[in-house]
Design brief:
By secondary structure, the chain is mainly β. 4% of the residues lie in helices and 54% in strands. It has one domain (6-87). It contains 1 helix and 5 strands. Strand 1 and strand 2 (13-18) form a beta hairpin.
Length: 91
């Protein structure tokens, strides 16, 4: 799964930037790691499936050209230090 820049994330959906245009109503699988502060070793993982609800062509304002909004359809949630290993993998 490629790493993407996420601008906004809530329990109902998220907005991210992509080099690829995405079709409306298509599904995307996602996984997002959340690091807890102050303990940077404690991490939560949310993964699931979302439906694309908006795809904006950002033109040349960004190198990744498209802003995409997705509505979360289903999720699983994992908590714990063992997830820290996932975050330490090379990109």
């Amino acid at each position: 799964m490629p790493r993407l820049e996420i601008r906004d994330f809530s329990r109902r959906g998220f907005y991210f930037y992509s080099e690829l245009k995405r079709d409306l109503a298509s599904n995307v699988d996602f996984a997002v790691l959340f690091r807890k502060i102050p303990s940077e070793r404690e991490i939560d993982l949310v993964r699931g499936t979302a439906q694309i609800v908006r795809c904006e062509d950002l033109g040349s304002t960004r190198s990744d050209h498209f802003g995409i909004a997705a509505k979360i359809e289903e999720t699983t949630y994992e908590v714990g230090d063992e997830l820290a290993q996932l975050d330490e993998r090379p990109a």
